[in-house]
Amino acid sequence: MITLVTTLGTDAIDLYPQKLAQNLSVPKIYFNVYQKRAMRFNISFFSPGAMRLSREDWQFIKMLRQRNDIIHLPNQHLGRYGVFLKPPYIITVHDLSRYFDLKGYTTYIHHPNFRDKRYLSLDYRGVKRATRVIAVSQATKQDLIRHLEIPGQYISVIYEGIDHQVFQPVKDHLFDFPYLLFVGSEHPQKNFSGLLKAFSRLKRGGKFEKLKLVKVGKAGGPEAEFRKRSLEVIGYLGLREEVIFTDYVPEENLPAYYSAAECLILPSFYEGFGCPLLEAMACGCPVIISNRPSLPEIAGDAAMQVEPNNIEDITATLYELLINQDLRETLVNKGLQRSAEFTWKRTAEETLQLYLEVEENLRTDRGLYKTTELMGILPIYEY
């Protein structure tokens, strides 16, 4: 028997197990341990909050270890608990952005402090020990093979889906002006500042005086002043009256933002999947994406692509899309067709098939299981 761990937050990484839970008839564990940790990056190891979280971590680990079934951990940051479980267990990896920060390759989110490094190291150690890994894109699978050295036969690519009962064209108009739409955090990997610079150039041309930029989504976690950085760029570029922040918007309200937008633009430096581009396409909104993994993989030929480091390229592509109605209609039609391929029903069916495969291999002992014994790892509460 396989049990799906289901986190209770509102971030995209939490919606994944929640949608699976709605579509899978398997045992589930609902918990909010991860949400508390996601809001506690960049705190001291010895702060009262950190010590309390460590006790809760160990209680959760003990609860998991008391179960006799196979556990499915739905995101890579639950790997810290997998480290303390005996295989078999399954884990889903959405991206390796925090891993790249941990290794100092770049800063996609925030450079981790000492405590964060220890926990992130446990996360990816847990990923490497998993019996099977689900990657949400081929790009993420290749990252796992290259950076974590996980053999490809242990990794199954299962794409995420979108809810087509929610994401479809609507006639609601939230604003009385034309706007570009950006959906996501303001983490460095999202390249929101690059979009602001391109938007500023577009406005200086004089052709789009009424055009504004609407930014949907929280700035990010409390580990860094992401919103403050965005506002500094906006002030420098003279865009204070041209950018509208909505912060968190419930899923059921997002179609109104997508449907009336001139386009969605995601000029990210790195993405593990990119749900907003599919949501926008399903709502009849044309999409511009960066040419970085995994966005072209998910979008296919239904989106325009830009080089995220090239502000002139982003500006020129926005201009072309805004003035070319035929191009817009082509992208809308292709987007509607492309997005229809991604459903939570399909995601759940492929996940269930993996569950059955794991259970069958366990029964017949086909050797597809890593049984590395846990050695030399201190309990979290002893750090």
Structure write-up:
- The protein is of the alpha/beta class.
- It has two domains: 2-161 and 343-376, 3-Layer(aba) Sandwich (Rossmann fold), CATH 3.40.50.2000; 179-339, Rossmann fold (3-Layer(aba) Sandwich), CATH 3.40.50.
- It has 15 helices and twelve strands.
- Strands 2-1-3-4-5-6 form a six-stranded parallel sheet. It has a six-stranded parallel sheet with strand order 9-8-7-10-11-12, sandwiched between helices.
- Helix 4 links the parallel strand 3 (70-73) and strand 4 (89-93).
- The longest helix is centred in the last third of the chain and has 21 residues, at 344-364.
- The protein starts with a strand and ends in a 19-residue tail after the last helix.
Largest sheet: 6 strands, parallel
- The CATH class of the largest domain is identified as Alpha Beta
Label the structural class: alpha/beta
CATH architecture of the largest domain: 3-Layer(aba) Sandwich
Q: What is the radius of gyration?
A: 21 Å
CATH superfamily of the largest domain: Glycogen Phosphorylase B
Number of helices: 15
% residues in beta strands? 5-15%
Unreliable segments (pLDDT under 50, ≥5 consecutive)? 367-383
Order of helices and strands: EHEHHEHEHHEHEEHEHEHEHEHEHHH
Helix fraction? 40-55%
Termini distance? 33 Å
How many domains? The number is 2
**Anisotropy-based shape:** globular
Mean pLDDT: 91
Q: Could you say what the CATH topology of the largest domain is called?
A: Rossmann fold
Say how many strands there are. Answer: 12
